[in-house]
Amino acid sequence: MPEGPSIVILKDLIKDLHLGKPEILEVEGSAKNLDKDRLLHEKIQDFKSWGKHFLICFKDFTLRIHFMLFGTYLINAHKKTKLTLGLAFKNDELNFYTCKVDLLEGNVKEHYNWENDIMAEEWNSRAAIKKLKEMPEALVCDVLLDQHIFSGVGNIIKNEVLYRIKVHPLNKIEDLPPAKVKALVKEARNYSFDFLKWKKENTLSKHWEVYSQKECPRKHPITKKELGKTHRQTYYCGKCQKLYQQN
Q1: pTM of the full structure
Q2: Fold designation for 4-112
Q3: CA proximity to 69, closest of 88, 92, 56, 52
Q4: For 40, how many CA atoms within 13 A lie in the half-sphere containing its CB?
Q5: Mean pLDDT for the chain?
Q6: Which architecture, in CATH terms, is 121-237?
Q7: Which part of the chain is CATH 3.20.190.10?
Q8: Is the pLDDT confidence value at 15 over 90?
Q9: Which of 88, 113, 114, 163 is 20 to 30 Å apart from 148, CA to CA?
Q10: Beta strands in 13-119 (DSSP E)
Q11: At what angle do helices 178-201 and 4-13 cross, to 10 degrees?
Q12: What is the pLDDT of residues 77-108, one digit of tens each?
C-alpha cells in the first residue's frame, strides 16, 4: 500500500500536467459509481494529496483515488492490468489500476482536514498529541496507523518510527512517558520526510533498520508478528525497544 510520501511523489510527477488546467478529452476504465460523462471536457483545477489519498480537483467536485494494497499508476503509458480509470488530455494521459475511485461533491476542503496529514504544511503536532491522550488504552502500533491522527503513515513508517524512538509496539499510550509521546509524534513526521527523500533517491530499503530485517543495527534479532487491532505485520527489537508498564 503506498504511504503518504509516495502519494506526494505522484503529485510532484504530474505537476507539469496541471499547468494550463488541462481538459479531459477521454475517460476509460471499470471504476464503479462514477459518471464518466461528467468528467468529459472538465478542466482540472489542482492535484492534491491527503495521507494515502490522491485527489484530482475540479471546480465543483473532486476525484479521490485510493490505491488500497496493490494499486498502481502510469503516466503516458499503459499496462495489461485491467484499467480502473484512465484520463486522456491533449498531450498527456493518467492511468490508474487496482484502486478505488470516489467522487466527492463540493469543495475538497469540506472533506479533509490537512492538520492530520503528516506531510502537509498544515500538520498540527499539538492536535495529534491531544488525540493520543484521549485514547490512553490504545496500542502505539495501532495509533500510528490511525489515519485520523497520522494521515499518510503506513506500515513501513510505523515500524521504523517505533524503532527510531526505541518504543515497543505493544505499549499503551497511557504507559508512555510524556517525552516519548512527543517523540512519537515528532518522528512520525520526520521519518515521513526521510522516506520521501530516500524514495526519490530509490534508496528507501537500504535505510530500513527493522522493517523486513532479521536483525537490528545493534545485531539483535528482530521479532516479526501481527500485532494490535489492525493485525498488521510488525517488526521490532525486543532488546532495543522498551515495553513500559504502570507501577
Answers
A1: 0.90
A2: N-terminal domain of MutM-like DNA repair proteins (3.20.190)
A3: 52
A4: 6
A5: 93
A6: Orthogonal Bundle (1.10)
A7: 4-112
A8: no
A9: 163
A10: 26-28, 46-50, 53-57, 61-66, 72-75, 83-88, 93-97, 100-105
A11: 40
A12: 989 889 999 999 988 899 999 999 999 999 99
